[in-house]
């Protein structure tokens, strides 16, 4: 008994690969010459799928099924053969016997290649070894594969090839498909949670007329009909808050965001966020919402609140809450309250080898201390709140300490997962912060094209109620709940540099 499988290893030479392609192409041309072009088939009646067949099987009942999928292996044993078919739910074994399908069909089946897409009609049974299988009575070639699949035992392991040819990755690496099925489930649960809280999902523009003052670098494009340079959005915030002004008290958007910045295991130039805004609440309300949302999604998707991630057991059932001042003092020993002036902060930063920000104020230097000493320590879920006003241009100031804002970020496994504010609704304060932010950016970069969004300021002048806002990265949440160490593992088509 010989098992016929594709033996193409990843390091196969181009000459050998071309030879295999040539043989497959010749088979296709022979079929077409005989009037049996598989690409001419437009439909196939699929009644069942692999996992469902196994789940529903009983030895007492004989069930007839019609299945379709990709042939992943084949064992030829004279007048009978076994094959494995891969469909959307997984693999199932197919038993093909010459006397059942006919001599001509059996001969054609033996000429099929690994990777061909086939249709099988037959009945379900259990083999002598106990494997639930489909006993074929009809077998049809539905699509010819002109490329061999990666070798069975090594699979497709090169990450560059996996990301560039995700279709091939999905075919040969079952865990990859499971990750993206889970991603879809996570998005469904997030929407269900927010919809259940009375939020309305909306869409806002991806193309915007100018670059806002925020620090992220955008991508530029040009609108021909308007003869207008435009910007791909770096956030959805300002449009969503316009809707709060308009009386839509709870809104959210699952939005694609574009930032023309670096790429690493946590960053891709385009990524997915959810931003949401709720009138008549503040950042404390957003903390409670985040904690409830994370617990609900983890429980519904993973069946547990304790999830493994990169060597840690992350307990989403317990969250710590610290101000940024408290966190810096806890992990560095430095007390912000000892700094009386910006010069005190600068001297302390130099003494602790902490990088100075572009504009070295006390608040901005506190944030640098946080980056240097705190973030890497935040493995378990932690809210860090009360951020300096210098780095929070859209957050409301704390009434009892205007040097700080009602803002928090939450961290898991030393990574920031989301950002939330008590939203600034004072139009005069907002205008001043925007103008200072744009002026600072232009002073540092003479080519900067950032502008103040004065229409948003006008919206605030009509009156926005007290509002809590939250933005978080969907991709990082998927990484956490699928135990993936790179953002490219949870994006179906990550940005890649062209091979040539």
What does this structure look like?
The structure is a single chain. This protein is of the alpha+beta class and 500 residues long. Strands 7, 11, 12, 15, 16, 17, 18, 19 and 20 form a nine-stranded mixed beta sheet that branches. A five-stranded mixed beta barrel has the order 2-3-4-6-5. Helix 7 crosses helix 9 and helix 8 runs parallel beside helix 14. The radius of gyration is 29 Å and the shape is elongated.
List the helices and strands and how they pair.
Layout lengths: L1 E3 L9 H20 L16 H7 L7 E14 L2 E8 L2 E8 H4 L1 H9 L5 E10 L5 E12 L15 H6 L1 H7 L1 H23 L3 E2 L5 E2 L11 E4 L4 E5 L4 H9 L4 E9 L11 E10 L3 H20 L3 E4 L2 E4 L4 E4 H9 L9 H10 L10 H13 L7 E7 L8 E2 L2 E12 L2 E8 L4 H18 L9 H9 L4 E7 H9 L18
Parallel strand pairs: 4-6, 7-11, 15-16
Antiparallel strand pairs: 1-2, 2-3, 2-5, 3-4, 5-6, 8-10, 9-10, 11-12, 12-20, 13-14, 16-18, 17-18, 18-19, 19-20
Summarize this structure briefly:
The protein has 500 residues and is an alpha+beta fold.
Overall 3D geometry? elongated
What's the β-strand tally? 20
What fraction strand? 25-35%
- The structural class is alpha+beta
Main sheet, how many strands, which sense, barrel? 9 strands, mixed
Q: Describe the oligomeric state of these chains in a short phrase.
A: single chain
Low-pLDDT segments:
1-12
Radius of gyration: 29 Å
Helix content: 25-40%
Mean of residue pLDDT values: 93
Q: Give the terminus-to-terminus CA distance.
A: 45 Å
Q: What is the helix tally? A: 15
